[in-house]
From TrEMBL:
Transmembrane domains' residue ranges: none
Pfam families (UniProt xref): Carb_kinase, YjeF_N
Residues reported in the UniProt entry to bind K(+): N63, D118, S151
Cofactor binding comment, as recorded: Binds 1 potassium ion per subunit.
Binding site for (6S)-NADPHX: 62-66, 122-128, 148, 243, 296, 346, 410
Listed EC numbers: 4.2.1.136, 5.1.99.6
Source organism (scientific name): Rhodococcoides corynebacterioides
Record's subunit section: Homotetramer.
Domain YjeF N-terminal span(s) in chain numbering: 10-203
Domain annotation YjeF C-terminal: ranges: 208-472
Name used for this protein in its record: Bifunctional NAD(P)H-hydrate repair enzyme
């Protein structure tokens, strides 16, 4: 499990550490880790360390101090290090003294370095890069190694509302911060340096692939089709039969139990998946352990009646797509639910549900909806944010955007529905489904082996689900 600590959580954990250690010891540990990573990057990228050129961009706080201390250490390893001080009058005094003592040069122009260390701003960052820093960063061509986090990106929300650093590598000090999962594309390759920080458990986490693989339900010796969970799918319509096919197919692929389909697209579904049992109505469906309701099933009064029937049942229900539109008009349908409810909106559906877009602080917005409506919410995105009503948040970083394609959400909801039917708790099911879904998208984009990825649609994504689950289980 990876934990992502907010700036306040890191500061709370920093206080006892700083009280215990000699002055600058924590910074020196951070700087040593940073210098080690930079030296490794120089070796990989240029074939050596001695005589290579590194530019340190140092702001006015401890983040600049870390970068200058690292610059001093790299000087000791024979690197030609220059430092550009964004606020020369406020540069970290001890770190600047160490840098000068190591014969580091302070310059006023960026030059032509092999690598850049971004020590402009760290945990105390507010807003995007200021114009002077933005102009310098804009002119860089060398790869950037960010100290703690890429400057200009909000540490707690990952929001970028103006110029910001795009790092090739980020070296996190003491703990991962939310920016590292919410804006992973800005961070590049991540390294964590142990500086002796021992923070409490974070409220934002992300499971490892191995944990997802270990928890994936597979049939045991005593299992039969019913004991592994029966998933009910209410999706698709005469107008949109594809949503029913994709959603049902994903439930079939995700676990080994049984899938029932209810709706107007039964013939299409059975044509693709003969193992699916169909019914015309909810009342005729038979026993189901979790429902997925909404993809492509319409938003009229009939759809609302069907949604009501499902929500009145006492099993977990996932509401997606058209189901969310209906719910946004009739939130009272959730009243009295005795079992878990999972809502899986994209940003537009989120706005329909709450009246406002998720905004820059996606974690806060998702938490608020989950608490207000007493549901588990999964907000889709490159970083998918999942919150329980008690405020616990999991984030799945897809690592790519190949799944941004029509019908991909229907696949996701079918997979999560099957996990719910297998008895996996709501937030865990959502985060496991999201992880397998992003893995399947990445596998499909490379056709499970092609060297260069290419765009995909939802059908190859769905076909890659068993390989994705197998991959995750292999990491268990
Ligand atoms: N306290 C410690 O002993 C440790 C601190 N660490 C480092 O300290 C960093 C935090 O340092 P600080 O709290 O001094 O603050 P920062 O270095 O993050 O920021 C310094 C100052 O920059 C200004 N600033 C804010 N947003 C800005 C922006 N967008 N553009 C330009 N300037 C901006 C603010 O005045 C802020 O106080 C961490 O990220 C980490 O790198 C690590 O060395 C670990 C140990
Ligand atoms: K930084």
């Amino acid at each position: 499990m990876r934990h992502f600590h907010t700036a306040d959580e890191v500061r709370a954990a920093e206080a006892p550490l700083l009280a215990r250690l000699p002055e600058y010891a924590a910074m020196r540990r951070a700087a040593h880790g940073l210098a080690t990573v930079v030296a490794r990057e120089l070796r990989v990228r240029t074939g050596g360390v001695v005589g290579r050129r590194v530019l340190v961009l140092a702001g006015s706080g401890d983040n600049g101090g870390d970068a200058l201390f690292a610059g001093a250490e790299l000087r000791g390893r024979g690197v030609a290090v220059e430092a550009l001080l964004l606020r020369p009058d406020r540069a970290h005094p001890a770190a600047l003294a160490a840098f000068r003592a190591a014969a580091g040069r302070v310059v006023t122009r960026a030059g032509d370095p092999d690598l850049v260390i971004d020590g402009i701003v760290g945990l105390s960052a507010r807003g995007s890069l200021r114009p002077d820093a933005a102009a310098i960063v804009d002119g860089l061509t060398a790869p950037v190694v960010a100290a703690d986090l890429p400057s200009g990106v909000d540490p707690d929300t990952g929001a970028v509302d103006g110029p910001a650093v795009r790092a090739a590598v980020t070296v996190a000090f003491g703990a991962y911060k939310p920016v590292h999962v919410l804006a992973s594309a800005r961070c590049g390759e991540l390294h964590l340096i142990d500086i002796g920080l021992d923070p409490d458990a974070a409220t934002i986490t992300s499971p490892d692939d191995g944990e997802v693989g270990r928890a994936w339900p597979v049939p045991g010796p005593a299992d039969d089709k019913y004991s592994q969970g029966v998933t009910g799918i209410m999706a698709g319509s005469e107008k949109y039969p594809g949503a029913g096919v994709l959603c049902t197919g994903a439930a079939v692929a995700a676990t080994s139990g049984m899938v029932r389909y209810v709706g107007h697209g039964g013939a299409e579904v059975v044509h693709h998946y003969p193992e699916v049992v169909t019914a015309r109505s909810f009342d005729e469906a038979g026993r189901v352990q979790a429902w997925v309701v909404g993809p492509g099933f319409g938003t009229d009064d009939d759809a609302a009646d069907r949604l009501r029937s499902v929500l009145e049942s006492d099993v977990p229900v996932l509401v997606d797509a058209d189901g969310l539109t209906v719910l946004s008009q009739r939130p009272e349908l959730l009243r009295g639910r005795s079992s878990a409810t999972v809502l899986t909106p994209h940003a537009g559906e989120f706005e329909r549900l709450t009246g406002s877009a998720p905004g820059p602080d996606r974690v806060r917005s998702v938490r608020a909806l989950a608490a207000d409506w007493n549901v588990t919410v999964l907000l889709k995105g490159r970083a998918t944010v999942i919150a329980d009503p008690d405020g616990t948040v999991s984030v799945d970083d897809a690592g790519s955007s190949w799944s941004s394609t029509a019908g991909s959400g229907d696949v996701l909801s079918g997979m999560i529905g099957a996990l719910l039917a297998a008895g996996v708790p709501a937030r865990t099911a959502a985060v496991m489904g999201a992880r397998a879904h992003s893995r399947a998208a990445a596998l499909a984009a490379t056709d499970r082996g092609r060297r260069t990825a290419a765009p995909i649609s939802a059908s190859p994504l769905l076909r890659a689900v068993p390989d994705a689950v197998g991959d995750l289980r292999a990491r268990a």
